[in-house]
Amino acid sequence: MKIIVMCGAGASSTFVAQRLRGAIAERGLAHSAAAVSLASLPGCLDAADVLLLGPHLSDRRPQLERDAAAHGVRVAVLPGDIFGDRDGRRALALADEVAHAPISPADAAPTDIPPISIPPINIPPERADERNQR
Fold this sequence. Notes:
- By secondary structure, the chain is of the alpha/beta class.
- The chain has one domain (2-110): 3-Layer(aba) Sandwich (Rossmann fold), CATH 3.40.50.
- It contains four helices and four strands; from the N terminus they run E-H-E-E-H-E-H-H.
- InterPro entries: PTS_EIIB-like_sf, PTS_EIIB_2/3, PTS_EIIB_3, PTS_sugar-specific_EIIB.
């Protein structure tokens, strides 16, 4: 399982990911953990299984869940006291729980969204000339 830990700039997620790697090694699992910043979306989701969000990103969860669902990635928000998890066991337990939770229809990415149709904009020639003179 590939676990991505995301925060705003990538700093606090680095600590959580490092501790997660320790917990993974301690249990002898074939998992991996990496820290990313919010700016790394959507590319960081390509090979991920679980996305753990820093507590300060909880307000962005709905949008991040939509982005992640398009890649088949499960999402959870880390608890506010996660930075006190010195051995990474709580973060690993949360990732395992999220990865193995059953998928409900509400969790699935929507498939019935119609494409957006944008009508062409017709600019009168005299207005186009004004714009070109600016």
